[in-house]
Specification:
Length: 633
């Protein structure tokens, strides 16, 4: 009997991935402040400290680039296995370290593995999990990351206390081998991504995986149904990311990831032990205070479990980042008010600022609040937002670029932080707060909501019924008959158009009036088709959807000037396409959207991807169009 792929098994695999993504984050937090570590490596300079901390994120950047080139070639499971092997190599280097530069090298190699895993796990989750479970799956991965961070911190603290020698960090870093071995084993249990099979035209394999995911007969999914699920699977190049219509979405994803890094969360978590030393904490008091944020990170990551699949991603990011900007600014302000210059603390040249007892209590308490807010908001929502804003056709390369920029910013900040703390001191944290506030304003004013934006998988992979086009509980796409809709005109339309649907008027600029179908794909579907239309609202409201037709006036000869403005059009008189064709000699279009506020559409031409040009008087249905195997025009 053939194996049935169950979501809880795939979730277990993602837990292992989350362990690797988080386990090395806190692997240095205990040791950078320990006496025997600094003595063993001859008290690293601020530059060497920055090199060790920055090697990990710069490796993550290389890992993202590596995945961008190999991700579509060796399959998702192949990427998991390669990343695990790279991780094992990094662990071996870390265990055998003899100088500070080997630590940096080991962290760099492990960073390459984590960078690749951060992208492939994101893509795999989106491609395999149904729409109504992606939020929970995202929280599960993030929760595992936070647990791994805390677990590694406690392991390092325990070994450091009992061994008090170089064996402490060697044993701690050697334990990181375990999740990599589990990851390799798991790749032989979970399925390959059906989206990857479709992209490589392996439809039989995709059919088999989908059937096993649904525990249904293999005849439940034919090739047409699979294509409808995944839409455009054409290959893209990096140069496509800087061209319309994808550039804006990639830029949005990059900005969100940059915002996450500039909140200063990674710097705060990594160098919190420094803040504890500034506050005058020593021994167990310092370790207990430094471990608290890792525990809070776990507890407050449970919060998004209850609302992430229902809450506006954009507003969650805005509220979270604004709160983080405020708290980080307060941290800098309290350090300024209650601090003063001192000689390097414990011989550490990065620590030249001391806090009074009251200032230390306030600052550390604010650090705890900061971590709690981040875990409740940006830790999951920013990651999910970046996934949803990128169309499927560019997701592999687009997400690699977004995550690569995130790792690059992470490297820059962690590398410069010791130098910044030795020069800017309290101003370091105030700078993070100001930049976060500015980026939050940008997100608030210009970014779209993605809660209603879903990829082209019109049927849920794991909860759809056996008939294509049947109702799907939890599906994000309104019900309609895919076979009928897509069999009419299986082409892509290249339109140069703008419309004003609020006034229903025609003038010498050829504005058009239009009405919509009620069964509409998501806005991301329209964005991935070359329809030059601007959606002015992003609110999903089924009750506002109305079937309407579009009148396009006959284009005047270029040598002739339009003879005055056309008369106002009553939309109720133009619902019958044949009546419109006979009386006005116009071309009818059925636009598809969930918005009733499409504005300023001027139709100049309508051309299919196979070169066919529609003339005035022709009837075409954009709702029946879908990307062909050759990709969009």
């Amino acid at each position: 009997m053939k194996r049935v792929y169950e979501l809880h098994k795939i979730s277990g695999f993602l837990i292992v991935v989350g362990m690797i993504l988080g386990i090395d984050v806190s692997s240095m937090a205990v040791f950078i402040g320990s006496k025997h570590f600094n003595e063993y490596f001859n008290y690293p300079t601020p530059f060497q400290q920055g090199m060790v901390s920055g090697a990990y994120p710069i490796g993550g950047l290389i890992g993202c680039v590596l995945f961008a080139f190999m991700g579509d070639r060796i399959s998702r499971l192949g990427c998991f296995r390669c990343s695990a092997l790279i991780w094992l190599a990094g662990c071996a280097i870390s265990v055998l370290v003899i100088n500070i530069y080997m630590i940096a090298m080991g962290r760099f190699v492990k960073g390459v593995a984590v960078g690749s895993l951060s992208v492939v796990s994101s893509i795999y989750l989106v491609e395999v999990f149904p729409t109504n479970r992606k939020g929970i799956a995202t929280v599960l991965v993030q929760l595992t990351i936070t647990f791994a961070i805390f677990l590694m911190y406690m392991a390092c603290w325990t070994f450091n206390r009992f061994f008090n020698s170089h064996y402490a960090f060697r044993i701690s870093w050697g334990l990181e081998i375990i999740p990599a071995l589990a990851l390799i084993t798991g790749t032989f249990i979970i399925p390959e991504s059906p989206k990857w099979f479709v992209a490589n035209e392996q439809y039989n394999e995709a059919q088999e995986v989908l059937s096993r995911l649904n525990a249904a007969s293999m005849s439940a999914f034919d090739r047409e149904a699979i294509l409808n699920m995944y839409g455009n699977t054409s290959k893209t190049k990096f140069v496509d990311l800087i061209k319309p219509p994808y550039f804006k979405q990639v830029l949005i994803g990059i900005t969100i990831q940059t915002l996450v890094q500039f909140t200063g969360v990674n710097v705060l978590m990594y160098y919190l032990v420094y803040i504890c030393e500034m506050a005058g904490l020593h021994g167990n008091s310092k370790m207990n205070a430094a471990s608290m944020p890792y525990l809070l990170n776990i507890l407050f990551t449970f919060v998004p479990f209850h609302f992430l699949d229902k809450t506006s991603r954009k507003m969650l990011i805005i509220n979270g980042s604004f709160s983080l900007a405020l708290v980080m600014s307060l941290i800098g302000f309290s350090m300024w008010v209650y601090g003063y210059d001192v000689s390097p603390i414990n011989g550490n040249p990065a620590l030249v600022w001391k806090l009074t007892p009251k200032g230390g209590e306030i600052t550390i308490a604010l650090c705890f609040v900061f971590v709690a807010i981040f875990a409740s908001t940006l830790s999951c929502s920013a990651w999910l937002y970046t996934n949803e804003i990128l169309p499927t056709v560019i997701k592999t390369k687009g997400l690699s670029v977004c995550m690569g920029v995130s790792w690059l910013v992470n490297f820059t900040l962690t590398f410069l932080s010791p130098l910044m703390m030795s020069t800017l001191k309290w101003g370091t944290f105030l700078l993070f707060g100001i930049v976060t506030f500015v980026l939050t304003i940008v997100v608030w004013l210009t970014f779209p909501e993605t809660l209603a934006l879903y990829q082209e998988n019109a049927l849920d992979l794991c909860s759809c019924k056996t008939e294509v086009g049947s109702s799907n509980k939890g599906s994000s796409i309104p019900d309609f008959d895919y076979n009928d809709a897509f069999s009419e005109i299986p082409t892509v339309y290249k339109l140069k158009a703008r419309a004003n649907l609020d006034q229903f008027s025609l003038d010498d600029h050829d504005t058009i009036a239009g009405k919509y179908r009620s069964s509409a794909p998501s806005p991301v579907y329209l964005q991935q088709n070359p329809v030059a239309a601007k959606i002015a609202t992003h609110n999903y409201n089924e009750s506002s959807l109305k079937p309407e037709s579009v009148r396009i006036p006959e284009q005047p000869n270029k040598a002739e000037k339009p003879s005055g403005s056309a008369k106002s059009v009553d939309p109720e008189k133009h619902c019958d396409p044949m009546m419109s064709l006979q009386s006005d000699k116009i071309m009818m279009l059925t636009l598809t959207t969930i918005s009733s506020n499409l504005s300023d559409v001027l139709v100049e031409e309508a051309v299919t991807n196979d070169g066919y040009r529609y003339n005035n008087g022709d009837v075409i249905d954009l709702y029946a169009s879908r990307p062909s195997a050759g990709g969009v025009v």
